[in-house]
C-alpha cells in the first residue's frame, strides 16, 4: 500500500494536488484538494487500468459545466424549495443557485473550496481526510461549520467516504458524493445492470422539487428491486422530459447494500452502502461532446451518478428525515463503495 501526493495543476491561483491511495491489489483512489473531487477510482486490467469514475485532466473543466462531476456536495445535497427551511423555530433563507431554489449547497457549497488534508496509513487501509472551516459568510448557511471528509481505501477494495460536521449553532447537514460511474471501457453505461433496494420513489414538480408523494416502483420503469439493464430502463423512459433517470428513490429500511451496479461485459460490479434513506440516480442524460473527459468526448448516459443522502427538501415533508445539525454536536455520515472484480 502506498500514498502519492501529485501536483495536478493550478486553479484560481492555487496549486491543486491529487492525493492517490493505492492498496495491495493495485486499486487506486485519487482525490483533488480542490472541491474534494473524486478524480480517480481505478482498477487493474490485463491490458492496463480502468477508471471507474468520469474524470477530467484539468481542474477548470470540472467547473466549466453544471453537472458537479466528482464533487463533494454540502452542506446539503439536493434541492431546497425557495431556499427556505425552518430551523430553531425560525425560517432560514439560503442563497439560491437554480431558479429560486438552493441546489447542492448553493453557489458556494463544498465544491467551492480548496481543502487542507492529512494522511493516515493503517494495517489494512489508507486514508486522506480533507478539512475546512466554512463560515456563515462563506456559503450563506447559518452558523460556522468545521467539516472533515475522509476517503478511506481498504485492502478489500472498499472506498469509504465519511462526512463529519460540527457547527457553532444549529444548521443543516446532508452531504454526498457526486461521482459518475462507468464500470466498462465503453462510452456509455447502457450495458450496465442496476439494482436498487427501493419500493418507492418521489413525485417531483417541474423544477425537480419533491411534492411529498411517494410513488410505488412496482410495475413501473422505476422498479429496480431486481437487476435491470440500463438500456432497457432508459428505453422505457423516453416519454419523460429527462429521457432517462433523474429520480429520488426511498431506500428500504436496513437495506444492505442499497444499490448495485454491474457491467455486463467485464462483470465488474460496485455495491453501495449507506444508512440514510435516499438515493438520487441520474443517468447523465444531458452530457454532450462539449465535455472532454479523460475517456473521450461526453455523450448522454456516459456515466451514472448515485448520490446517497437523506431525502431532500425535508422540512416540507414529514417522514423524509431530519438534516438538522445541532450546535456543538458532531454528526457523521458514511457512504461505502465496494468494488467486486468480475472476469
* Count of alpha/pi helices: 3
The rounded distance between the terminal residues' Cα atoms is 24 Å
**Total beta strand runs:** 30
Percent of residues in beta strands?
Answer: 35-45%
Strand order of the largest sheet: 11-12-13-14-30-24-23-18-21
Main sheet: strands, sense, barrel: 9 strands, antiparallel
Fraction in helix = under 10%
- Could you report the average pLDDT, rounded to the nearest whole number? 96
Rounded radius of gyration (Å): 19 Å
Stretches where pLDDT is under 50 for at least 5 consecutive residues are none
Structural class of the secondary elements?
A: mainly beta
Cα shape: globular
What would you note in describing this structure?
With 343 residues, the chain is mainly beta. 4% of the residues lie in helices and 45% in strands. The chain is built from 3 helices and 30 strands. Strands 11-12-13-14-30-24-23-18-21 form a 9-stranded antiparallel beta sheet. It has a 6-stranded antiparallel beta sheet with strand order 17-28-25-22-19-20, with no helix packed on it. The two termini are 24 Å apart.
In short:
This protein is mainly β and 343 residues long. The protein is built from 3 helices and 30 strands. The strands form 8 sheets. Strands 11-12-13-14-30-24-23-18-21 form a 9-stranded antiparallel β-sheet. Strands 17-28-25-22-19-20 form a 6-stranded antiparallel β-sheet, with no helix packed on it.
Amino acid at each position: 500500500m502506498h500514498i502519492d501526493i501529485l501536483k495536478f495543476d493550478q486553479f484560481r491561483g492555487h496549486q491543486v494536488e491529487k492525493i492517490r491511495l493505492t492498496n495491495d491489489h493495485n486499486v487506486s483512489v485519487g482525490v483533488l484538494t480542490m472541491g474534494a473531487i473524486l478524480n480517480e477510482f481505478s482498477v487493474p486490467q490485463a491490458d492496463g487500468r480502468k477508471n471507474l469514475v468520469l474524470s477530467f485532466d484539468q481542474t477548470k473543466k470540472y467547473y466549466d459545466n453544471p453537472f458537479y462531476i466528482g464533487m463533494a456536495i454540502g452542506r446539503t445535497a439536493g434541492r431546497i424549495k425557495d431556499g427556505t427551511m425552518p430551523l430553531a423555530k425560525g425560517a432560514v433563507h439560503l442563497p439560491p443557485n437554480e431558479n429560486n431554489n438552493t441546489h447542492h449547497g448553493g453557489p458556494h457549497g463544498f465544491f467551492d473550496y480548496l481543502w487542507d488534508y492529512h494522511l493516515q496509513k493503517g494495517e489494512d487501509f489508507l486514508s486522506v481526510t480533507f478539512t475546512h472551516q466554512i463560515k456563515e459568510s462563506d456559503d450563506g448557511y447559518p452558523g460556522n461549520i468545521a467539516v472533515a471528509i475522509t476517503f478511506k481505501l481498504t485492502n478489500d477494495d472498499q472506498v469509504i467516504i465519511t462526512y463529519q460536521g460540527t457547527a457553532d449553532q444549529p444548521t443543516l447537514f446532508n452531504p454526498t458524493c457526486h461521482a459518475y460511474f462507468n464500470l466498462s471501457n465503453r462510452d456509455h453505461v447502457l450495458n450496465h445492470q442496476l439494482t436498487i433496494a427501493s419500493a418507492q420513489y418521489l413525485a417531483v414538480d417541474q423544477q425537480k422539487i419533491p411534492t411529498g408523494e411517494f410513488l410505488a416502483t412496482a410495475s413501473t420503469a422505476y422498479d429496480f428491486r431486481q437487476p435491470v439493464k440500463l438500456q432497457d430502463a432508459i428505453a422505457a423512459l423516453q416519454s419523460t422530459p429527462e429521457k432517462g433517470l433523474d429520480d429520488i428513490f426511498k431506500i428500504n429500511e436496513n437495506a444492505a447494500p442499497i444499490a448495485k451496479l454491474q457491467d455486463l461485459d467485464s462483470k465488474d460490479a460496485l455495491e453501495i452502502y449507506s444508512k440514510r434513506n435516499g438515493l438520487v440516480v441520474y443517468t447523465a442524460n444531458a452530457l454532450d461532446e462539449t465535455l472532454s473527459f479523460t475517456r473521450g468526448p461526453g455523450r448522454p448516459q456516459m456515466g451514472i451518478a448515485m448520490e446517497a443522502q437523506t431525502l431532500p427538501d425535508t422540512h416540507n415533508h414529514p417522514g423524509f428525515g431530519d438534516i438538522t445539525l445541532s450546535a456543538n454536536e458532531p454528526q457523521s455520515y458514511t457512504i461505502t463503495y465496494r468494488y467486486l472484480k468480475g472476469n
